[in-house]
Amino acid sequence: MQLLDINLGAVVDWSRAQFALTAIYHWLFVPLTLGLGVLVAWMETRYVRSGDEFWKRTARFWMRLFGINFAIGVATGLILEFEFGTNWSNYSYFVGDIFGAPLAIEGIMAFFMESTFIAVMFFGWDRVSKKFHLAATWLTAIGANLSALWILVANAWMQYPAGMRFNPETARNEMVDFWAVLFSPVAMNKFFHTVTSAFVLSAVFVVGVSAWYLLRNREHRLARKSIKMASVFGLVSSVFVMWTGDGSAVQVARYQPMKLAAMEDLQQGQSRAPLTLVPGIQVPGMLSVLAHHAPEAYVVGIDDLTQGNPERGLLSGEEKIARGRQAIETFAAFRAAQKAGDRTAADSIARLFDPTTEQGRAFHDDCFRYFGYGYLETPEQTVPPVPLVFWSFRVMVGLGIWFVVLFVWMLVLERRERTEHRRWLLHLALWSILLAYIASQAGWIVAELGRQPWTIQDLLPTVAAVSRIDAASVQVTFWLFAALFTALLIAEIGIMTRQIRKGPED
Q1: 165 phi and psi, to 5 degrees?
Q2: Of 11, 46, 309, 361, which residue is most buried, by most CB within 10 angstroms?
Q3: pTM score, two decimals?
Q4: Greatest Cα pair distance in the chain
Q5: With 0-12 CB in 10 A as exposed, 13-18 as middle and 19+ as buried, what is 119?
Q6: What is the predicted pLDDT for the residue at 34?
Q7: CB 93 within 8 A of CB 141
């Protein structure tokens, strides 16, 4: 039994590491695709409306960079989806009816949509009319963002499971309300926050590449027009990022209080909770405002969630574990009655899992909502890696503020026609491309590590979701993927830099 537990722990650790590796590499390509497609469509719209060949040349240049990034992003995304079946088969079985639906829609509708029109976008310049080509470009950009919608809906459901019902007959969670899954507050907020943050990254990328041209005294008009357009796009997107970030804080406080406590390293819950800018510097009451829109509100801390706080109606971690085990034992009793052919006992227990009855609702509130806790050993297992989540959040927010400053600065200088004379700022803009990717990755670290140990919040921890396979096989594929994705990243950087040095075609 000891050896089995050790091996299972290794499988969980390596499976998480492999999924994290794949997700990190995949997200290096996705955000640029989401935003750059919109910018290219905007540029081509300027060409169609004005007839100025400059805008056609500009759109085609940025379109080439979009296409390189798009192709490699698809390859990494496909591997991510396969990992659900290979490394996380218990998860896939437990929630496949729900989680699979958004992914299926993404593949059938959005991915085929963008894949179809991207061919017209790249090869149809001299083969179709201007307006048809413009429509294909916009549909490609829209399709890419619709793909993101369905994937983020699936991810949001893992953070806040809604619109489902557990079926003891099949031992699976089944979707009962598609619209509750699609339009849950977490799903909609996550979509707009993630997509607009991708728009910010894309805007920084265009500004940075354009700054490189000005530093090399090349393509002045293309660079300056691109900086102006991307800065407006990035500034507007930044406003939406801040707005949806405020919504995220409220939802995290409501549905994932442990994540919020980790983000702020808040051990003891308190009213008028301060927001920590960096250790030693705090804004009194600001965390209560962000989390509950009330300066006097109580913000739950890590100790409240692990040790309990009866005054606030918060159960201890041990109590949640006990209730989760009771839910698991009730389900085991159902399976035993079913196996023994005792239909009366099985039907009686099955009614406990029916949320449409008063008895079922009571069982859900008392026990089943803590189902996943039954697989844990100690309350401390519910605490995510606090230092990493804490600092990742500050990196994300701090760099987001810098990007706003950068966009405003660039617009002011461009209005005064002095952009190319601020070479130090152009160097900063160029290096900000790297900072944008760091900020983007930091955001996902907060979102995903902040909810550990859960694959589905409160319902399924990683230890119960992982496939029962040998850890060595996961280790081998981890290093194979690491080598493959690193090679793809090096290849993309090489191709992109060659195309940038080459510049737009005449």
Answers
A1: -150, 135
A2: 11
A3: 0.93
A4: 84
A5: exposed
A6: 94
A7: no
Q: Which tokens is 157 given?
A: 């459901």
The single-letter code of the amino acid at 76 is T
Amino acid 140 reads T
Q: Identity (one letter) of the amino acid at 237?
A: S
Q: What is the pLDDT of residues 322-371, one digit of tens each?
A: 999 999 999 999 999 999 999 999 999 999 998 888 999 999 999 999 99
Per-residue pLDDT tens over the stretch 70-119: 888 877 777 888 888 889 999 989 887 788 888 888 877 777 787 789 88
Find out whether 460 and 91 touch, Cβ atoms under 8 Å. Answer: yes
What is residue 293's three-state secondary structure?
coil
pLDDT tens per residue, range 423-440: 999 999 999 999 999 999
- 5-35 pLDDT, tens digit per residue, is 547 889 999 999 999 999 999 999 999 999 9
CA distance 458 to 450: 13
Cα first-last separation, the chain: 69
Distance in angstroms (rounded) separating the CA atoms of residues 60 and 66: 10
Instruction: Find out whether 383 and 306 touch, Cβ atoms under 8 Å.
Output: yes
Structure tokens at 257: 């209080």
Element (H, E) at 379: none
Q: In the predicted model, what is the mean pLDDT of the chain?
A: 92
| Structure tokens belonging to residue 347 | 């039907």
Count Cα neighbours of 103 within 13 Å in the Cβ-side half-sphere: 17
| Residue 364: CB atoms within 10 Å | 19
